[in-house]
Amino acid sequence: MTLPENRCKKLWRFTQLKLGNHPNDTSNYELTRLASIILKISQGTLLDFVGNHIISVNQFERADVERIFSVADAMRPYAMRERITRVLEGAIVSNMFFEPSTRTRVSFGSAFNLLGGEVRETTEVKASSLAKGESLYDTARVLSGYSDVIVMRHPESGSVAEFAEASRVPVINGGDGPNEHPSQALLDLYTMREELRNKGRNIDGFGIALIGDLKFGRAVHSLCKLLGLFENIRLHLVSPPGLELPEEIVAELKQRHEVESFNALEDGLHDVDILYVTRTQEERFPSQEEANRYRGLFRINQSIYTEHCKPNTVIMHPLPRDSRAQAQELDDDLNQNPNLAIFRQTDNGVLVRMALFALVLDVVDEAHNHAQPVTWHTAKRHHQLG
Ligand code: NCD
C-alpha cells in the first residue's frame, strides 16, 4: 500500500489545527502524533524520531538518513542567517561532554541556539558528580529532569546507551569511546552527497579511501555502518599494520561493496572519489609509547596528492587533524586545494545537528512557521558555506 504524501500532510495539518484550538485535550495530542506517524510512513521513513534516543547508526534505514538530509537542507537558511526561527524557545539541551571536544560540542550547542533553545554544558568528568562516584543512572535521572534533550560524549563504549536507558528525555550520542559517533557519520555522509552532487554523481557507486587509524576511530566505524545502506561502493581501507578496521565491520561492508585493504599509504590513494583521512586516536592506545609508533606514519600533502590521486579527489577528515610537526596526517599545504572539504564538513555539522533536534523534538514543520528575517549585518549571508 502506498500513502499519498499530500493527503497525509493534510491530515497532519488538520490535527495540528485541532490541537491548537484545544491544547488541553490530550486526545488531540494523540491524534496529532498518530497523524505525524502516518505522514512519516508516507515519506518512506521507518524510524519515528520523535522522543527517541539517537545512539547508533544501526537505528537507521536509508529512508531515515534521507529524511535527516532533507531536513538538514531545509535548515540551511537559518544556519546562513537568512532567516531566524525561535521554534525551540524555552527548550533546554544539556551538552554533557566527558571527553575533549570542540566542534561536536559547539555545533550541537549552536544548532540548538539557532532553533531558539538554551544550552547548558558540562565539559569534564572532574567538574561533574561522576568524579564523586555518581553512577550514569543517577546522573541521567537528575539531568533529564532539567532538560528536554541531552547530548552526551563519554570515553567508554556503550556508556551513552546505558545513560539513555535511565534518561526520561531523548539522548543523542556525541561519541562513546571507540564505539560510535552517529552525528559525525551523518554529517560526513551529507558532505559526501554534496561534494559528489557538485560533480554530477551520487553516493551509490562512488569510490572512497578510508585512511589512518581505522581500529579506534569511532567516526569511521559509524560511517562504515551508514555506507552499508547504499549500493556498490568501492572502498579502500588504508591503515598501518595493527590499526586495521575491526573484522566484523569489514565483513559487513563486503556483503554489499567492493573492499580492498592496503598497509602502505601510497598504494590505496588511486582511483577513488574521496579520501577520508583520520587522526591516530592516541588517547585510546594502551600506552603513549605504543601510540608514538604510529605518529607521522601516514601523511598526505600536496605532492603525494598530485602524484597518487585522481584529479579533483575530495579530501575529508572528521577533525581535529593533528598538526604537530611529527604527525601531520593532513598537511597544511593542502589548505588552498579547493578539493579540501574539511571546513565544508564542519559547517554541514550544524545543519545535520539542527535536523536531529528538529526531528527528535518534533518541530520540523513548525520551525518554518516561526521564521523571521534577520535584521543584523552578517557576513554569513554573503558567503557560501565552505
Ligand atoms: C572525532 C571524534 O571525536 O571521534 N572528532 C570529532 O568529533 N569531530 C575524530 C577524532 O577525534 O579524531
Give the CATH level 1 class of the domain at 182-344: Alpha Beta
| Biggest pleated-sheet summary | 5 strands, parallel
Give the termini separation: 42 Å
* Ligands (ions, cofactors included): N-carbamoyl-L-aspartate
Q: Which value, in Å, is the CA radius of gyration?
A: 22 Å
Strand content: 5-15%
How many strand segments? 11
Q: Provide the CATH superfamily of the domain at 182-344.
A: Aspartate/ornithine carbamoyltransferase
User: What is the topology, as strand order, of the major beta sheet?
Assistant: 8-7-6-9-10
Could you name the CATH topology of the domain at 182-344? Answer: Rossmann fold
Poorly predicted ranges: none
Helical segment count: 13
Mean pLDDT: 91
What is the string of helix and strand elements?
HHHEEHEHEHEHEHEHEEHHEHHE
Question: Which term fits the overall shape?
Answer: globular
Structural class: alpha/beta
Helix content: 25-40%
CATH architecture group name of the domain at 182-344: 3-Layer(aba) Sandwich
Q: Could you explain the architecture of this structure?
A:
The chain is an alpha/beta fold. Among the domains are: 1-46; 182-344, Aspartate/ornithine carbamoyltransferase (Rossmann fold, 3-Layer(aba) Sandwich), CATH 3.40.50. Helix content is 40%, strand content 13%. The protein has helices at residues 5-21, 26-42, 62-79, 103-114, 136-144, 159-166, 182-197, 218-227, 247-256, 288-292, 302-308, 342-360, 364-369, and strands at residues 83-84, 92-97, 118-122, 149-154, 171-176, 207-211, 234-238, 258-262, 274-277, 314-316, 372-373. A 5-stranded parallel sheet has the order 8-7-6-9-10, covered by helices on one side. The chain has a 4-stranded parallel sheet with strand order 3-2-4-5, with helices on both faces. The chain has a two-stranded antiparallel sheet with strand order 1-11. Helix 6 links the parallel strand 4 (149-154) and strand 5 (171-176). Helix 3 (62-79) packs across helix 12 and helix 7 crosses helix 12 (342-360). The model has no long low-confidence stretch (mean pLDDT 91). The chain binds N-carbamoyl-L-aspartate (NCD). N-carbamoyl-L-aspartate is lined by residues 103-104, 175, 181, 184, 218-219, 279, 281, 318-319. Residues 103-104, 175, 181, 184, 218-219, 279, 281, 318-319 line the site of N-carbamoyl-L-aspartate (NCD).
